């Protein structure tokens, strides 16, 4: 049976669940909105799918429902925020607000966060910066280690994703949102739920053999893009988003999929860049339209019908899902029913 | 016959050649020093190897031997520099100096350049920022297009590399320097000189078949790391280092390997980040030493003897080549002999 839910119903359900676990009304609304945006964006591993985990963590004391953010240090163009163990969505929305203000004055800004948590898809925050007229760059330490250093087998690194968002004129914005691994772990998790197999190249086991059964993902690890290059990116993103913010990195990263109690001390950072510090904004946007035109008009490889730009599918998915609603897989739907029971809130319909 | 040249002789030769083509003494020394550093670092495709090309471009009027840099716009934490068509080494050293000063005040800075040229390996500039006690990030539009958009065959993108340098305490700094393609084009060029074959996965031809003969590289193109992900990185790095700086990107990029006259209008940018805006520098360095220890102590895949960190080989190569000198392949050596004749400067010995 298919459950297709309107974005409005999804928002109301998430908001109610968060209110029931101690969020303020405003914070429940910001978080619910960002989580719905994740689903609308096609990031199925990062929206409502994560709610059961978030609720469990809030209930078991591993996440603070009423965080009070502090600025631990700042300069004209930088800040380090203590997220007080709040959900990452709130911490990074707050960080983005600070980054936007600072970048408008200084041209660029870099805001790091410690004592944060899983914040959903990276593009949520760069898109927010973009909607405020600036270029956004976001990097996070992933919320569980699924990758060893290149040549190793100890899980010391995560998918440590990066998103970069750049405005266009007539075309959709260019938005990259990628894990430094060939596949994000969320994709492995959704395959477990849907019962699919992984293609070769996503994971290998501890002997170095390809691993394609997603239910056996614990026996192996994700592979980085470009081999040692992706390992280098993941390592350095982890240092910049984790170590530099005095947040968890390496062996200190808690697997938030299995541990709901221990504070994760997740680290993220966001950069905002004011285009007008370099060039007239409208001129820039029209030049990005030219980039669209150039890339789209390239001759194609045999069998390829269309060249795509990062963010193009995203724009289509947002349009489609906003009108048609979000499809919830049956196992997730029954989990959400259970949550409604537990929290005494209306069921998702 | 093997030609092994001391770094001092290499420096003197490059300096003399640049002086003879119109550089000031100071600029010849800065450039020669950076080019020798490229060779010492093992970046064989980016040091003395590029001298014949640079000289040709200077002689044919495609590059300005006496550039006067201008700041086109700036804010507290940003600047856009006009490199006046000078060699990239000088432009980016200048950009890095500005970035360092701004970051010390503001916490972070972002300095872009237009009207620049090929600047050698990316790590030269992040290492310079690092030597000044800050974290450095550098991105460039490559000086020739060797890659189509994902699924296409028109050469609209370059290897658009990134370097990030992070200081350590007792260990070498962590320095990543990578093309967004599986192989840098410099590696293809050095294979042509040494007569080797490319491994599968570096390039494909216009029908999508693997291309392994480096002398046929014109019939195909480089592949991005992680497929569409590396394409996305290359595209966005090109926009940030090129378009945003009003520098060349896409079809406007001149192939500086074959055209020595047309102004390239190369774009690059550099970010400097002051660690002390986030954390005590010495504490940070000791935590990076912990990262080293953690990664190195990982269990290994069968057949792997050692885990390496980005910058580890670089540190070893610098040590070895500084004492043993640089090996110059015979074809390059005779080209340099010819340059000495033409410019009436002492031969390289």
What is the topological layout?
2 copies of one chain form a homodimer.
Chain A: E1 3-5, H1 7-20, H2 25-40, H3 51-59, E2 70-74, E3 78-82, H4 88-106, E4 108-116, H5 123-131, E5 135-140, E6 162-166, E7 174-178, H6 185-194, E8 203-205, E9 210-211, E10 220-222, H7 228-241, E11 266-273, H8 281-296, H9 312-324, E12 326-328, H10 330-343
Helix pairs in contact in A: 1-2, 4-5
Quick tags:
homodimer, 349 residues, alpha+beta, Ribosomal Protein S8, Chain: A, domain 1, seven-stranded mixed β-sheet, three-stranded antiparallel β-sheet, globular
Structure commentary:
With about 350 residues, the first copy, chain A, is of the alpha+beta class. Chain A is built from 10 helices and 12 strands. In chain A, the strands form 3 sheets. Chain A has a 7-stranded mixed β-sheet with strand order 2-3-4-11-5-6-7, sandwiched between helices. The first copy, chain A, has a 3-stranded antiparallel β-sheet with strand order 9-8-10, with no helix packed on it. In chain A, strand 3, helix 4 and strand 4 form a beta-alpha-beta unit. In chain A, helix 4 packs parallel to helix 5. Chain A is globular and about 55 Å long. The model of chain A has no long low-confidence stretch (mean pLDDT about 95). Chains A and B meet through strand 4, strand 7, helix 7 and helix 8 of A and strand 4, strand 7, helix 7 and helix 8 of B.
């Amino acid at each position: 049976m298919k459950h297709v839910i309107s974005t409005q119903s999804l928002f109301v359900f998430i908001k109610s669940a968060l209110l029931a676990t101690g969020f303020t009304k405003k914070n429940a609304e910001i978080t619910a909105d960002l989580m719905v945006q994740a689903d609308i964006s096609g990031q199925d591993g990062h929206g409502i799918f994560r709610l059961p985990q978030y609720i469990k963590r809030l209930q078991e004391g591993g996440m603070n429902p009423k965080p009070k953010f502090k600025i631990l240090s700042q300069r004209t163009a930088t800040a380090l925020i203590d997220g007080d163990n709040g959900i990452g969505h709130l911490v990074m929305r707050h960080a983005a607000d600070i980054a936007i203000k600072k970048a408008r004055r200084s041209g660029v800004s870099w805001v790091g966060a410690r004592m944060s948590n899983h914040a959903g898809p990276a593009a949520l925050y760069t898109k927010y910066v973009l909607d405020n007229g600036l270029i956004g760059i976001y990097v996070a330490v992933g919320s569980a280690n699924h990758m060893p250093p290149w040549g190793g087998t100890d899980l010391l690194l995560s998918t440590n994703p990066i998103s970069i968002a750049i405005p266009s004129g007539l075309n959709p914005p260019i938005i990259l949102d990628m894990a430094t691994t060939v596949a994000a772990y969320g994709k492995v998790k959704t395959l477990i739920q849907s019962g699919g197999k992984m293609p070769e190249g996503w994971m290998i086991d501890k002997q170095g053999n390809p691993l394609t059964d997603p239910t056996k993902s614990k026996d192996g690890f994700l592979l980085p893009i470009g081999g040692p290059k992706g390992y280098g990116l993941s390592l350095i993103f982890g240092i910049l988003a984790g170590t530099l913010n005095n947040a968890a990195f390496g062996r200190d990263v808690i697997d938030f999929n299995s541990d709901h109690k221990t504070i994760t001390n997740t680290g993220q950072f966001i950069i905002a860049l004011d285009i007008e510090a370099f060039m007239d904004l409208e001129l820039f946007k029209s030049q990005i339209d030219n980039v669209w035109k150039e890339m789209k008009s390239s001759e194609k490889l045999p069998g390829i019908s269309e060249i795509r730009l990062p963010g193009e599918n995203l724009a289509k998915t947002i349009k489609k899902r906003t009108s048609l609603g979000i499809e919830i897989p049956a196992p997730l739907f029954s989990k959400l029913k259970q949550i409604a029971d537990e929290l005494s809130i209306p069921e998702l319909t």
